[in-house]
Amino acid sequence: MRQTLSRIQRLLRCDSGSAIVEFVVLAIPLFVPIFIYLNNFASLSGNEVIVRTLARESLRAYVASDSDQVGREISAQALSIIATRLGLEQVEIQSLRAGFDCSESPCLSANGRIRLTVSYIDAQSHRRVVASAQEHISPWM
User: Fold this and answer.
1) Contact partners, residue 68, CB within 8 Å, separation at least 6
2) What is the dihedral sign for C-alpha 21, 22, 25, 27?
3) What pLDDT, in 10s, does the model give residues 44-67?
4) Which of the four, 3, 37, 50, 60, has the lowest number of CB atoms within 10 Å?
5) Pairing mode of beta strands 113-121, 97-102
6) Which of 50-54, 65-69, 119-123, 126-130 has the lowest mean pLDDT?
7) In this structure, is the dihedral angle defined by the CA atoms of residues 123, 127, 128 and 132, taken in order, positive or negative?
8) Apex CA 10: angle with CA 8 and CA 12, to 5°?
9) Do the beta carbons of residue 53 and residue 86 sit within 8 Å?
10) Helix, strand, coil fractions of the chain, as percent rounded to 5
């Protein structure tokens, strides 16, 4: 009994392994907020890439059309199809908004500039994600 008691006392006085315990106790609570921040940042960055792609590709579809009316219809169809292919949820696709800003009237006029602003509401964070794309119409159109 006495030997067991003296062994326990020696083990309690020994400092080996205490650095590991201190690291775990102090470092883990510091790493948790970093992991949460990085996860949130990755999600936001992914949403920004998606909305920029939507704006750019929808505007390309618009500019490649024959007229303003046909361009807006093709652009809306492209926006919906691309959003589905990029993995947006149905709720997010329904929240998609697109707005055209043209320097000339009609928009597809020679030497004009067209800006398309696309936005949607992210289903997880409920944050509105917005991006714009701009095209210049050839003067020889």
Assistant:
1) 106, 107, 108
2) negative
3) 888 999 999 999 999 999 999 888
4) 3
5) antiparallel
6) 65-69
7) negative
8) 70
9) yes
10) 55, 15, 25
